[in-house]
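INTERNAL AUDIT FORM
Audit reference: QA-55
Scope: verify that the stored structure record matches its stored sequence.
Auditor: D.O.
Record contents follow.
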Amino acid sequence: MFEAAKKDQRRLVELYLSHVSVDLQNADGLTALHCAAGRGCYDLAKFLLEVHGANTEIRRNPGGFRPIELATFFGNTGVVNILLEDGRVDPNERNGMDETPLGLAANRCNLEIVRLFLDDDRVDPNGQHINSMTPLLVASSSFGIKSVHVINMLLEDSRVDVHAQDDDGCTACVLAAKHGILRNVKALLRSPHIDPNQGDNNQKTPAMYAAAGYIRQTEATPNYLKRNKHLVLKALILDERVDLNKVDDNGHTAMHWALRKSRQENVQLLADSGRVNLNQDCGPGRRTPAEACILKHNSCTQLLLDSGCLDLSETNSQGETPLMFAVRKAGSDNWDIERSVWLILEKQRCGRLDLRYDNGLTLLEQAVQAGSQRIVCMLLFTGKGTVTPRAKIFCSDEVIREMLDHHRGKPSRWWTSRTVWKWLGL
């Protein structure tokens, strides 16, 4: 009987049914209605329902699919329709994997079946799917070509909760950005009811996920750009509602995330937006975006300096300029920070170098005390690093002492030559 049902052989099925129950299950737990629903046998399914009253709620196993879920999964619109019209099926019941029929349809991006469910007053358009995801969340995280049409269909339904969150606190917009699905992000941003700044349980917003490079954070940059994935961040930047300076629970902004994941293309987009505060106070003990960049990302430091969006005279909560912060953090031997110091000095050649820290030390005195030979050399080359008696008192490094003793208080003509930086190992 089951083979006959799979092959849509109604007469043969009818012959079997004169001897066995219509709800008989095979070794896999499937009934004849399961077979008809999965294969899209509309006439046979209708016959089983209307003539024999086939049970619509039987599952192939305790957590398995019912006929309506099989029909939905395989996109058999006609069978889904007659099952809904039959009236006995519960269209909101979840299977053992916490999947709802509407959630399955949204995940499979089947527009006709989604429409059938939304037109049925019994269906909850916010019924929770896997991980407490509503159909809108499921569609937003789907890579299906038609996912954007499902999203639009759901957004047009006034019953749909556009602010719904899954167990991780992710909204539809967060999920679309998290997976890097540009068309879904654009569709959601077109809705005036979507809040593009609503974050997940860690307050991480769509812009932060987009800046970090989504789930595949180690994806090679050429491949990342070839697939236009950086355009997700660009779409968010173009929406004036998006707050690019919002801070998550770890004190990170979108710029922080772009820097942490070394996404230079995203750093460039954020810098060019003109809406990012690189000296933003992100909370006690937390670094500004500029400071995070200085500590590790030399290529990004160069990018920010070239963009003109980094104000080198602005101070942080401790009263330190970016240069003061870099000199203090460099220690005796930190190539990354030393290179950042060089880049800032090259940009700020005529800037103020006579600033003092809270402890009264000058830039040069701080570098001498830390024993940073290269930074001392850089400051002396500028002619702005005045050698003070206290600097010599702090000095415990023979190489630095020799530099201080031989300095004549004039800028070195080597300053404009790359030879000096090659000599410094920078």
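Auditor finding: record pair retrieved intact. Residues 212 and 257 are 5 Å apart (CA to CA).
Action required: none
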